[in-house]
């Protein structure tokens, strides 16, 4: 099985990993998740900018961006008539107990395989045998394979089950024996090596009704990059020195005086047990230590008074306390707590707040501005910890993206239009280019009549890598907004001269 990065627009066999799949468990077995790799040195994956508008449009590491999928060039097409001539003993599509060998053979055919995976504890382990290490943990894999025919139909092979141990995968990883991309994908997602793997596991668990934080202890991660608790408390509460507390008590009735913390019953002092007056009532007070724990437990943005349950943090200040908070009204400044990739993504937050597809701002199509925006956004739009084969901008399809983009901005240079129409034109031309390549490689013959008809009308339906379409749309959205930000806006009186051509498209 060739281990290179083929185009999804050419003959290929794709292998997708889904983990964890709880339905694979048998009676008495328990699902168990391994701790994410290097969890003690990592931040739990959270939106890089906690903003409802951005998260709705571009969810942080959404499902398509977290799917583990590898591609292999195919050299054969399934023919039912030919394969019917083989006996069972000679059938090269017959499953064995060796997953790698089976995929080596099957990946020669145009089609796809899906590996559904679960890590579990066998039912015959006694309580005292429950592992403190991952060696006794088993790995069960269910492979389903679809082989495509040239008439648009598919041949579904019988599901096959494979059994391993986690120790087996760890050993071949240590020995550098993970020879194929799908093997690396399987190892990485089981160990949640990358942030995208963590998010993928979260998505899959949610679909099955599980809470990720109940499976993986949240306290194991490095504390989130957010406002310190003591600073957050200072946003809504007032700490009192002993002298200030005495003066304050003199204003209260004798029975209402604040002498000890109602939570730990310790007398107020000048240290961690100092009195902190809450904003909801003149009589609601706690020691700093107890309030700090209460905020840690509930979150600064959601913490409420333990006496009356009134929300403590003012609504306008609550967003400032969230993990990875960024003030979008201020000029962006890189934060050393974040990687270069994360800082780049955070710097685009102001662009992501505006949807180009809805933006009626009139702009001048300036070739230089748009190319500069491309060079700023697209080459840097990936995490350097992610393998190159998982990065859309490094995929073979990216060439058609760039060529189409370059041709379109050159063709329309100097014209005026709205941001919306420019975005739609660029998007249409990119997907038309991808569709043309798909058809030129004969891939359309593997579609049925209905799929071909839909593809003819809607080029964005061209089958491609799962993460490539959202990559194109997000990149174009940011490019248009960046060009607009850097001077492409023109006065409404200038009018638009791209509408007619866009309508023709």
TrEMBL record:
InterPro entries: Znf_RING (IPR001841), Znf_RING/FYVE/PHD (IPR013083). Residues 261-309 form the RING-type domain. Keywords: Metal-binding, Zinc, Zinc-finger. The keyword Hydrolase does not apply. It comes from the Eukaryota. The keyword Metal-binding applies. This is RING-type domain-containing protein. It comes from Zasmidium cellare (Wine cellar mold).
